[in-house]
Amino acid sequence: MRRRTILTSAAAALMLAPAGRLFAQAGGEALAADHPLQAAWRSWKNAFLLPAGRIVDGPQQNASHSEGQGYGATLAAIFGDEEALRRIVDWTEANLARREDKLLSWRWLPGVALAVPDENNATDGDLFYAWGLAMAAQRFGKADYAGRATELARAIALHCVRPHPDGSERLVLLPGATGFETPDGVVLNPSYYMPRALTELAAFSGQDRLARCARDGADWIASLGLPPDWALVTAFGTQPAPGLSHNSGYDALRVPLFLLWSGLTANPALRRAVETAGGSASVDTPVRFDRETGAVLERSADPGFRAVQALGDCALSGRPGAAIPPFDARQPYYPATLHLMALVAQVEGFSACVPI
């Protein structure tokens, strides 16, 4: 499972939270200490969060990524875990915050002389890290979190948001500050768009370009059919990105989850992804597809992938109850994290989809 290949429609369907209503969890508050999901959060922490605050991705050389640190920061804020958040922030700032533009370097490797061999950023990691800090600033009353979230929001808007190659007023979200603009167009990753995070961070920081990018990104994703892992966007449309996966695979698995979490259930890409996967009952969940034929290229028994599919099934079917499996921290970091996020999205936005 290699998710990191490189790092060097409609407006009517867009139902993003209004700017004044930040952080959709009721009252803008963290999940209560006695909420049933707290047990899953504790299991996730025990499996993937080291005491120093580093989140470990075992299958990826036991590395830590800005993505994982960002996911961890967001989840810690959602679960009201200020102690875990502080550890995550301290480690991230000490080890990944090394760029002059204030973005995070994307990967840290243990046991090597050069722990950060590539200082380029990963925009999704920066986005989730900033979103988590913004939530934490409001929930825990921490001015330093607010300042860092605003600094990151400004940096993302300045260095990672670009005009669409077609010369229109639309904006695109680069996967990193450098290495994704070519003479033919821009290389994009649909799963790097998390519309709710972009919109709420824009409202928190005053960076309206992020909210515009969320709207334009959701519209672009709606036009894709089955979302690819990577795509080249040109002045004339979307096509495969040379040298990168144009299948719908491990990266693209996040697209339906982030659409659900953002409340964008009318986005056509969500229905296409859910219908192509063909239901959530199978233990071996389809995780990689040929975009041209819809043929399943790979399956996984990790329950986190099944959780995302089950939430999508329930949200689109209108039937109560979702076949979301119980959280299991024995699976690898990536499906375990998607699993926990799916459970959070269910609690926050899909009360009828209680796991059954």
TrEMBL record:
Top EC class for this record: hydrolase
UniProtKB keywords: Carbohydrate metabolism, Cellulose degradation, Glycosidase, Hydrolase, Polysaccharide degradation, Signal
The keyword Signal appears for this protein: yes
Endpoints of the signal sequence: 1-24
Matches recorded under InterPro entries: 6-hairpin_glycosidase_sf, 6hp_glycosidase-like_sf, Glyco_hydro_8
Catalytic activity: Endohydrolysis of (1->4)-beta-D-glucosidic linkages in cellulose, lichenin and cereal beta-D-glucans
Enzyme Commission designation: 3.2.1.4
Signal keyword on record: yes
Recorded family membership: Belongs to the glycosyl hydrolase 8 (cellulase D) family.
Protein's recorded name: cellulase
The species this protein was found in: Cereibacter johrii
